[in-house]
Amino acid sequence: MFGLVLVYYLIEALKMTPSLEVDIIGPGFFPKVIGVFGLILVCILFLSSKDSKKGVGEREKKISLEYQHLTPILLLLIYVLTLEKIGFVLGTFLFLSFNLKFLGVEKWTRSLIVSAVITAVIYILFNHVMDVRTPESDIFQGLMG
Amino acid sequence: MLGEVIHNLGVGFAVALLPENILYAFVGSFLGTIVGILPGLGPAGAMAMILPAVFTLHPASAIIMLASAYAGAMYGGSTTSILLNVPGENASVVTCLDGYQMALQGRAGPALCIAAIGSFIAGTMGIAGLMLFGPIISKAALSFGSPEYFALMVFALSAVASLSGDTIVKGLLAMTLGLMVATVGTDMTGVRRYCFNLPDLLDGVEFFAVTIGLFAISEVIITTAEIKSGLRKTVIKHKIFISFKEFLYSSGAIIRGSIIGFSVGVLPGAGAGVASFLAYSFETQISRHPEKFGKGEIKGVAAPESANNAASAGALIPMLTLGVPGSGTTAIMLAALMGLNVNPGPLLFSSRPDVVWGLIAAMYLGNIILLILNLPLVGIFVRILYLPLKYILPLIMILAVLGVYSANMAVLDLVFLCLFGLLGYYMRRNGYPIAPVILGIVLGGQMEVALRQTMIMSQGQPFFVFERPIVIFFLVLTLISIFLPLILKHFTKTQIEYDEA
Predict the structure, then answer these.
(1) A144 vs chain B: nearest CA distance in angstroms?
(2) What is the pLDDT of residues B286-311, one digit of tens each?
(3) CA gap B373, B375 in Å, rounded
(4) What's B107's DSSP letter?
(5) Could you tell me how far CA B253 lies from the centroid of its own chain?
(6) Is A83 at the interface with chain B, CB within 8 A?
(7) Does residue A138 sit within a domain?
(8) Under an 8 A CB cutoff, do B411 and A80 touch?
(9) I need a surface site. Which of B67, B106, B214, B313 has the fewest CB within 10 A?
(10) Has residue A138 got a pLDDT over 60?
(11) Number of domains composing chain A
(12) Residue A100 and residue A52 in one domain
């Protein structure tokens, strides 16, 4: 798979042309070197596939791959994609509530209260104490911040 | 000359030790540490935040506060690396490797202590270097042209060998990925590469989205899997303080890290990130037990932490003497100095001794305050690890999102954060080391620029670089660092076979 990415990367690199005459090796040279180097490595790895599990850490060996383990990342992806639509406050509150529930907080009420408190603390800390703006909403602008 | 130095330093301390300045140093260190802890908001962010406030102060106080915030943020960045595998800035990426492993083994306290003590010693050594060699070094640094930088970057890339353990091919492949990411965006001549017509990609892929994704988000996935499979139930009892034996054991690494860090820091542009990678790599190469690195070796925390602090002192030399900022942080410091009507340059040491020596004294003071402030805080920081993971994990994700978002306000960066998180998880499951990716990104861009400038300088003659002694020096070092471990390994192997026979 990474091999395919490398091939695409290399094809794009071959298309690049220098914009300045003095720039002797041009913008495509470095990517070409990287692309060729990467493809050689992929070949080596492919040929020596017997030790494909070499270098895996102890913790990584123990866990089993189940797709439900990726739920927090799926939630994170939904969270970041909707962040500028629904705003930081609502987004964070919902993201936290679902995550806490998934990770083992038994009662919904507890999960909702904890989420509300954490959201409020982060919002105040970032916007009012440290002066870092949190993402704002397109839809509820002025309403939800 | 030494008498003059001592006299000047005395003047500097007289300014720095005024009660109000000590207060500013405390406030600066504290704010810096807090901001440094938040992912993505590194030292440059910390200083940018207090910059508007310092202009209202007396120049000396302003510099003291900025210098303390700088030191504080450098330290804060390593705290989250150790506790949560979330690097606060690029100089503390390497600290994750052994620091987080130590935390998993219940040795978070010693890791934080050695980071604080190492930073203190390295900071002090760095400032001593700045004081004694500042003007001389700045002249030598001028002889560093593009070919020399290119050779230095090639040498730094050889650190990949020490970051990838037994799996050198996988390590090199990971580094290739990093180099590829580094080529995304507008290049030095204005050509757009791999931008896919997305305006947010014109400046390249956001560094923190990649780093925090690879380290922190992949860690969130792995910990979730551990919770769900019931592997992570027992709460480990954490040691709070470091033993004297551990300190003595790491002292060599601290001193070596400081020297490497200072030397790299002096070069404008190379920066604390490169310094920490090189110091770590050097430690694994001279260690009798290189296999311990990456599994909770305390020297693997001491060396890079010392190096990044010494590098930040070293980076002040080109800034003060040449007016060339070596990093984002020194650029802000430079802006602050100019805002205060102090113009850095070769004459600064003689024209404004009060500012230069005030700054040096302020950095000493900042170092001491940081040690006083942070050693007692170790106990509190370690407590974070006692909080239930189900609350910590979502919090890490939100802080990661805010940290990455604050850099460019771009949702695309956040998507990259998720993607690199998944990629990091895939890599770790399949035995690919993730640190070489960061090495590739840190070095890739600078390396390419140096190479292209070299070729322009030499008008396409690649062999011209071999006429330059510094280039040859670094290339020889690169060969040594690649082949020496292999030769040593061979020898120890034959030795063991001999002993067994």
Answers:
(1) 17
(2) 888 888 888 889 999 999 999 988 88
(3) 6
(4) -
(5) 16
(6) yes
(7) no
(8) yes
(9) B106
(10) no
(11) 2
(12) no
